[in-house]
Design goal:
The chain is an all-alpha fold. About 25% of the residues lie in helices and about 0% in strands.
């Protein structure tokens, strides 16, 4: 349910680009530069995996995959 608004935010950051979204692989196959907006680098101590553990039930982050 949150995916569409978040993808809209990425689209705003890359104006003039037609983005093709591959939901199965969580990528923009036609614009790898736009993928930088799909995740962030957390400072030490603020990592989601540190807070919840890598095998937590219901854990989901768009780019945090083992």
């Amino acid at each position: 349910m949150n995916e569409a608004p978040l993808l809209g935010t990425v689209a705003i950051r890359v104006p003039g680009q037609l983005l093709n979204w591959d939901a199965d692989n969580i990528k923009f196959p036609n614009d790898p530069d736009a993928e930088r907006y799909l995740s962030r680098i957390y400072r030490k101590g603020w990592n989601i995996r540190d807070a919840f553990g890598s095998k937590s039930e219901g854990f989901h982050d768009m780019r945090c995959r083992p």
